[in-house]
Specification:
Number of helices: 13
Largest sheet: 7 strands, mixed
Order of helices and strands: HHHHHHHHHHEEEEHEEEHH
Structural class: alpha+beta
Helix content: 40-55%
Number of strands: 7
């Protein structure tokens, strides 16, 4: 859960998850949809699927968590850093770790003047991390915890507290005054702006929900029927939220919904607009309400739910926000 998510966000999810799945067997026996529902809101849902797959693999192999670094690394979703953290903290094995905080600390201790995320940079950082746990007088768990804390609390990205750092006499970056330029920053990601439209299709007190397929964002999660309107100039206008769409725009929406979801409906009015982000995309999401003329056939990925019941599904973050606004 802590991969790419902050501790403050994770804590409540962590306790709920452990209550539902207190051991490997319980998680392995769970339905994927239930796992995703408990994970909903944390993002990066591939992590949940991989953890579920890892639990199944361990359950099939006796139900014990492996205590050997190479075996830990073979688990789905467990990379080199996660394996090293587990091996050192849980089993006190001499396993190195390189993550955001230690990467920054090690780069400065090595005076690394190349991108630390490059192949050469990673090779040097992991070799350095291995030397620390191999040659320290302290346990690997204590060493790894210490360097992570120094990286997090002292050797910060901006304005590191070098005068109070316990390693400042060993740091050539501090000696040469290069803290602002090391580690070398990678170029910023290019952000792509998109415009999407989500539709609240209502009928007899229910809302149509669609489950995303494997080739879509948030695969396996439920969302409102959604179409990409990035290429339509009319949807780029700020006034779209004021109901400025003409009959032609509304007809286009109805046609797209019919093509994608097999639903015959009439788009009625604007509900709300907000922004959200997915990887390198920043999305303006316009939400409209619609009345259904002909109900589409229920399928495993298309179903009608009352709003309160829909909130119990494993939802995408935007869908959760939209449905919550109806309550």
């Amino acid at each position: 859960m802590l991969q790419q998510t902050q501790v403050a966000t994770v804590i409540d999810y962590y306790y709920r998850f452990l209550k539902a799945y207190p051991n490997i067997g319980a998680l392995a026996a769970a339905e994927e949809q239930d796992v995703l529902r408990l994970w909903s809101g944390l993002g990066y849902y591939r992590r949940a699927r991989q953890m579920h797959a890892a639990a199944k693999l361990m359950a099939d192999s006796g139900g014990e968590f492996p205590a050997i670094l190479a075996d830990i690394e073979r688990l789905p979703g467990v990379g080199r850093y996660t394996a090293g953290a587990i091996a050192s903290f849980a089993f006190d094995l001499p396993a190195p770790i390189v993550e955001a905080n230690t990467q920054r600390l090690y780069s400065r201790l090595l005076r690394l003047e190349i991108d630390p995320r490059s192949t050469s940079g990673q090779t040097q950082l992991w070799a350095f991390a291995q030397e620390l746990v191999d040659h320290s007088q302290h346990s690997p768990a204590r060493i790894n915890q210490a360097v992570m804390e120094i990286g997090s609390q002292v050797c910060t990205p901006r304005n590191p507290d070098c005068p109070h750092c316990p390693l400042n006499q060993l740091c050539p970056t501090y000696a040469d005054g290069l803290q602002a330029s090391i580690p070398v920053l990678a170029p910023k990601k290019v952000i792509t702006e998109l415009t999407h439209v989500a539709i609240l299709i209502r009928d007899r007190g229910q809302i149509l929900m669609s489950r995303n397929t494997a080739d879509q964002w948030w695969a396996g999660l439920w969302d409102l029927p959604r179409v990409d309107a990035t290429q339509l100039v009319s949807f780029q206008k700020k006034s779209v939220s004021k109901g400025s769409l003409n009959a032609e725009d509304l007809e286009w929406l109805s046609t797209e919904l019919n093509k994608r979801y097999g639903v015959d409906c009439q788009v009625v009015q604007h509900h709300r607009t907000f922004k959200h982000a997915v990887t390198r995309y920043r999305i303006t999401l316009h939400t409209f309400t619609a009345n259904v003329a002909t109900r589409p056939k229920r399928t495993p990925d298309l179903a009608w739910h009352r709003p309160a019941a829909a909130l119990e599904l494993p939802l995408t973050a935007p869908a959760k926000k939209i449905l919550a606004s109806l309550q």
